[in-house]
Amino acid sequence: MSPEYGEPHIVLRSKGSEVSGFAGCDRFMGSWRQDGERTDLGRVASTMMACRDRMEQEQAFLEALRSAERWRVTGSHLELYDAEDRRVARLEARPLE
Q1: Is 18 helix (H, G, I), strand (E, B) or coil?
Q2: Which of 28, 62, 65, 69 has minimal CB crowding within 10 Å?
């Protein structure tokens, strides 16, 4: 991982239902809502940087977030599932720095 960029991550805040994060090249922010295990990321805005070597990873990360309709916490991991109940992402919880 290049120290120039940092790791892709997502931060879900319950207060205000805000979501923010870093997709690999661009930062993003928006809203989210939860109903039981159901989750929905609302409209998400992002910066528009040009990182040729990171765009494929970034698009895959953002697509996983967009397609997530259900979540489950297992240990220190957040697993996201799509409408067909396929796991689209497995994210590891880490302390904010």
Answers
A1: strand
A2: 69
If DSSP codes are grouped into helix, strand and coil, which group holds residue 50?
A: coil
Measured CA to CA, the distance from residue 94 to residue 55 in angstroms comes to: 24
Q: Can you name the residues that pair with 18 across neighbouring β-strands?
A: 13, 31
Examine residue 65 and state whether it is found in any structural domain, yes or no. yes
pLDDT, residue 4, reads 57
Show the low-confidence residues of the chain (pLDDT under 50). 1-3
Where in the sequence is the domain holding 86, given as residue range(s)? 9-90
pLDDT at 5: 63
Full-model pTM: 0.75
Any domain includes 97? no
Give me the sign of the Cα torsion angle 26, 94, 14, 16: negative
2 inside domain: no
Is residue 96, in this structure, part of any structural domain at all?
A: no
pLDDT at position 87? 95
